Amino acid sequence: QVQLVESGGGLVQAGGSLRLSCLASTRTFSNYAMGWFRQAPGKEREWVSSISRNVGPTYDDSVRGRFTISRDDEKKTVYLQMNSLKPEDTAVYYCVAREMGAWEYAYWGQGTQVTVSS
Question: 6, 9, 83, 106: which has the highest count of C-beta atoms within 10 A?
Fold first, then answer.
């Protein structure tokens, strides 16, 4: 079982930046692909970005060039640096983990709210 705890959400003006962090409670963090999903009010949950030991950072088209995902395996933490934020980035952001070889992200954090004002 892996527990994920996000932090770093908040309120920011359009064009601003935030950095989300996600701390994982596992001894084998490097064996997990990590990622971020988000869910805006009234919308489906959507994938944002992911990173693993074997595959470099990948991004949804809506955030590519503005968001950067990274991980620190020693700190068991994954980050999402969000720049040039837009009001449409407003959502609850969820950290997720998938054991290498698994098909789905089995582990989810509780979510952190990001609100971008215009």
Answer: 6
